[in-house]
Amino acid sequence: MTHDALYWKQINGKVKCLLCPHACIMSELQAGLCKTRKNVNGKLVTLAYGNPVAINIDPIEKKPLYHFYPGSKTYSFATNGCNLKCLNCQNHSISQFPPANNEISGYLPSEIVKKAAENKSLSISYTYTEPVVFYEYVTNTSILARNAGIKNIIVSSGYISQKPLKEWCKWIDAANIDLKCFDNSVSLKLNGIRLSPVLKSLVDLKKAGIWLEITNLIIPGWTDSVVMLQNMCKWLAENGFENTPLHFSRFFPSYKLNMVQPTPINTLIMAYDIAKTAGLKFVYLGNVNTMDSSNTFCPKCKQDVIKRDGYNVLEINLNKNKCINCQTEIPGWF
Q1: DSSP letter for each residue of 266-293
Q2: Cut 0.70: pTM above it
């Protein structure tokens, strides 16, 4: 099905999308780079609305969100399409194709919220591909979810224009933003996007009071530079993200980078040390089979306040949001 799109204007007989920094200009029946937004009869429509390609109930830790209701379940869904062209995309079989008549089509926002409630999910996550490209679907679902007492989560690259992001901030409760690298030229080659709009989104989300966590995938030969990691962590610390959880994730061969070797564990440990030295208080290692790498430690007394085994929460040693050992406040929603 098609649905009227938001954030566009007519220009020289064509349609210009204003949703993300790509600002695609489309002739009649032409789709944008994301493959979900199309010029039909001189108007911009979305092909993604009510047309999910994947629906699952996930642990919140899978997003990953470690400081947002740990141990809870989140109703997760996605549509086809993406406004990035990542060489390492793990979901390329759905992200790099336009929306079609999927087997689970027909899930309008009211049905998504109903299913989330029936499955006793505390939240709905707009995830797997890039929620920016199913913006109208996310927006209308999140409004209904908020009214039903269900939290809203975006798992995104943050490549979105400021005005639509500001509107989202009225309804979104938490976000994990994939800060894919900290070098503009590498970002353009690896992901097909510029770095500065992502950094702006991080700042805007934080200012809006959205609970925020950040993921950085370390790809050998691409994003594992010591200088790049130092610059990223320095920028985060200097811009007020010292209490924002940072997840360094281990790369495994995929898509167009299937010949690149997995990230060495020592590289992840190096990144962890760089982040801690820069003053970031909550740093995690993903895709690593060691329990300590996913545990949350009190920054003052160094005791485990949340113990995890993979996506499973084993123990929470918090009194509301304070360490039970030393009463230090742990930032997050607990």
Answers
A1: HHHHHHHHHHHHHT-S-EEEES---GGG
A2: yes
